Amino acid sequence: MLIKIKNSWELSENEVTAHSVYLSRREILKTVGFMGVGAASSLIMPGIALADDGLKVQPNKYDGHDIRNELTDIRAVQGYNNFYEFGMEKDDPARNSHSLITEPWTVTVDGDCENPGKFAVEDLIDFNALEERIYRMRCVEAWSMVIPWVGVSLSEVIKKLKPTSNAKYIYFETLVDEEQMPGQRRGVIKWPYREGLRMDEAMHPLTIMAVGLYGKKLANQNGAPMRLVVPWKYGFKGVKSIVKISFVEKEPNSSWMRLAPNEYGFYANVNPNVPHPRWSQATERRIGDFRRRDTLMFNGYGEQVAHLYDGMNLRRYY
Ligand code: MTE
Questions:
Q1: Hey, what CATH class is 13-309 in?
Q2: Predicted TM-score of the model (pTM)
Q3: Where are the domains of the chain?
């Protein structure tokens, strides 16, 4: 007999709230009106999310701790962003990203794999197998959010592309287009925005390629049409609006490593014990909360991912 062993972060059938009975938080918020992110957050109740808005989602996975009742208000998730292609301030991406055209969208795949080429998003992601994953996101600037992402395990995408045994790392790039991304006229970063993962990190089931959040397609400011989410790493690893995936043999440089190699390493694992050279990483503030809370090792996902770094000096490989 085949017995399916559940991962510790999977919900059992009876813990799942059917998506059809989810309430539309939009409706609730419309009724009470806008009260600011902090006040509105307290309205969020467990099991409540927005209506599907076109995405068929299996709400069946979370991270092992029940954080469904800690969700960050969607207006903060879509209004307080880092996406330097649209400006440096947190509200710039929501204001400026309407110029990004996400349909059609082409992703180029190259490097050490059997299936290189140009792909539509639908070629890479099975929209019938989308899952909701509620993950904490911790940014280096010491704020954090809890977001119900919609996506598939990145491993599912990688399997379609068939990397060869030479492929030790995967490398992602964001679109470069000054017309669509006016922030690229400023050379704050050497465009394109780039990020990479070691292959075993990329294949880990917690790593997802997200196409939505709160049951809806990604807003442009969150990285439409597809972006990476690696919940145990600092938020900057979550490269947005991906147009290129490369399989490579050598550890690739990320945008932040290029910009400030003494401040940002390749791994970028959330680690309260290793301070950023200019500030502590020991605590964080949830957007919508006033109090600070202790930052957890690997952002609370240590049980699932610590083994990836066995024997590594995490002060050196930060
Ligand atoms: N991806 C691109 N292309 N450009 C960026 O500026 N910012 C990163 C990451 N991905 C960024 C990016 C940083 S610093 C963070 S914290 C997260 O996106 C923020 O994701 P969010 O705005 O969806 O919360």
A1: alpha beta
A2: 0.86
A3: 13-309
